[in-house]
Amino acid sequence: MVVQPQRDWLSFYQEEDDHSAMVHLSSNSITTDADNDVGLGRSRLVLKKGIAEFYDESSGIWENIWGDHMHHGFYDDGSSVSLSDHRLAQIRMIEEALSFASVPSEEEKNTSTAKIPRRIVDVGCGIGGSSRYLARKYGAECQGITLSPVQAERANALALSQGLSDKVSFQVADALEQPFSDGQFDLVWSMESGEHVPNKMKFVNELVRVAAPGSTIIIVTWCHRELAEAEDTLQPWEKELLDKICQAYFLPSWCSAADYVKLLQSFSVEDIRTADWTRYVAPFWPAVLQSAFTWKGLTSLLRSGFKTIKGALVMPLMIEGYKKSVIKFTVITCRKPK
């Protein structure tokens, strides 16, 4: 079921074209007029500026405490883990996403119908953790994009220091206006960046556009829960909870996994699959919250800036959102037709 939330809650910036207008008829949660409000009274340009500044401020703290992977970890049910285990869980998240999408390893290339990716794009790359991991795993060339100049500079510096500058590179660019040719990549990778993108239609269009025929697209992202058949929108208390998270983390309005499926179907991609991995990320936010209130975390926060401090204060709301099943940690994958 594709949900149809009320426009005042789920509305996404959209440059109208023939294709978007077609989808607009069936789901007003996906499109709005160009450069209009993308949620909470913010324009697209204001949102982009906020995202860039938020990650310019916070990325160094994150790397200092958590390392170079700026995303959730994947855990077994009921696991109790240390910080080192959390870092391993972040690597496991990458491997689980690849496995879910049936992207083969080098050892599996002779028994799999899918091809080994040799050209990868990392959309919303952070400081390049996924890019460097994938480049090593597959011997692939990987290009990453981020809105944060600080992240791009740090990602390139880490690539150089790790002997990967001939394989990976990073630049400041918008996920809605990717600086790549059509059909350029064997694997299109978006690890926890889609939640920042205000125009889901154009976002999906760009992911499909830069994917080569027969290539895999992987989106791991935060969604809101699916609506019941009798519901037109989320409950007021759910909207209020998500609004507060949006304000702190510079997010546009949220969508559901079903919204993503509807969009992907409109582009005629194949093998669309989704899964709710919320139960597998449960230990993550409590651990992030705990690390923020250590001496190292507190002193780093005080040096960072207002946006980072505000983000730290909202972390309990992420935990609440997961516990109350308002937030769903979702993986979505598909294949571009050959």
TrEMBL record:
Enumerate the residue ranges of region (SAM motif I): 120-129
Gene3D superfamilies assigned to the protein according to its UniProt record, in alphabetical order: Vaccinia Virus protein VP39
Renumbered to this chain, region (SAM motif II) spans 183-191
Q: Name one GO biological process term.
A: methylation
Signal sequence bounds? none
Key words, A-Z: Methyltransferase, S-adenosyl-L-methionine, Transferase
Q: Which SUPFAM superfamilies match?
A: S-adenosyl-L-methionine-dependent methyltransferases
Spans annotated as SAM motif III = 210-219
Residues in Methyltransferase type domain copies: 121-219
One short Pfam family name for this protein? Methyltransf_11
A molecular function GO annotation: S-adenosylmethionine-dependent methyltransferase activity
Q: Which family does it belong to?
A: Belongs to the class I-like SAM-binding methyltransferase superfamily. gTMT family.
PANTHER family for this protein? MAGNESIUM PROTOPORPHYRIN IX METHYLTRANSFERASE, CHLOROPLASTIC-RELATED, METHYLTRANSFERASE
Name the UniProt record assigns to this protein? Methyltransferase type 11 domain-containing protein
List the source organism: Trapa natans
